Amino acid sequence: MIGLTNAGGGGGGLRVAVGMTAPANPRDGVVWVESATAGKKYVVSKTEPQNPATGLIWIALSGDSIITAKVYEYNGSSWASTSAYIYANGEWVQFSYNIVYLYNEGDKCVNLTGGWYTKAWKFNNSQGEWGAEPTVTYGNTNVRISHQKGSGDSPCGGGWFTNDTINLDGYKTIVFHATNGNFAAGSYSDAWVGVFNTANSYSSAIAESQISDRTGWTYTNKTFSVDVSKINSKNYRIGAYFRSSGNSMSVTFDEIYLQA
């Protein structure tokens, strides 16, 4: 853990470099904010700076360690998360990330996603396969998606996706944070989160992370990450897909975001 003192002191003594390339010949404790627009002024505090100027950097502490902080840049109207690193033991250690929310504690982020929708979507063209929309419940701080259709050898598929396609250029990961998940075991008890080509007639995942298999999963506060670093197309949607044979399936998310 790198504390304030061995990272160069408090706000006034902390060494902060700003730019799109890492500083040459850094010393331990140097903080590099990866930004082309941020200024040289910064504030280190646990509380949001008042009356910030455009380009101000805020190193937002959650404790007494820089390594647990998040870094934001004021863009003139709001605070935007920013990638930042600290130099320690001969290498740059990233501790803050540039993220863009697709869903955030009740906010559907409509300006980016266009909202969210459900789709009845077969898993494949096998005999007996069919599709039905999952049930979605939007709460004040989260969204719950459940699916309990199909029976035996007649599995049913359905998904929950962004209305608009998402531009993934410049992002490495999509993060889904589930506050809880409850998936009963079953012959077709499968579920995934990720990037989907919903233009296809049958389920088509471009990049995915499994959030349940047929053994039945139960969890709380679990994070699922999907690698999108090699996806160049802008024509895909983000969401979750379920395939059930009548067994109960549900997951609740409070955050979904892109991470650079």
Written description of the protein model:
This protein is mainly beta. 2% of the residues lie in helices and 46% in strands. It has 1 helix and 20 strands. It has one helix at 110-113; strands spanning 16-19, 31-34, 42-45, 57-60, 70-74, 79-82, 84-88, 91-96, 99-104, 116-120, 130-131, 135-138, 143-147, 156-162, 173-183, 190-196, 205-212, 218-227, 237-244, 249-259. The strands form 4 sheets. Strands 9, 12, 13, 15, 18 and 20 form a 6-stranded antiparallel β-sheet that branches. Strands 10, 11, 14, 16, 17 and 19 form a 6-stranded mixed β-sheet that branches. The protein starts with 15 loop residues before the first strand and ends with a strand. Mean pLDDT is 88; it is low at 1-12.
Task: List its traits.
single chain, six-stranded antiparallel β-sheet, mainly beta, 260 residues
Reconstruct the topology from this structure.
Elements: E1 16-19, E2 31-34, E3 42-45, E4 57-60, E5 70-74, E6 79-82, E7 84-88, E8 91-96, E9 99-104, H1 110-113, E10 116-120, E11 130-131, E12 135-138, E13 143-147, E14 156-162, E15 173-183, E16 190-196, E17 205-212, E18 218-227, E19 237-244, E20 249-259
Parallel strand pairs: 1-2, 3-4, 11-14
Antiparallel strand pairs: 2-7, 4-5, 5-6, 7-8, 9-20, 10-14, 12-13, 13-20, 14-19, 15-18, 15-20, 16-17, 16-19
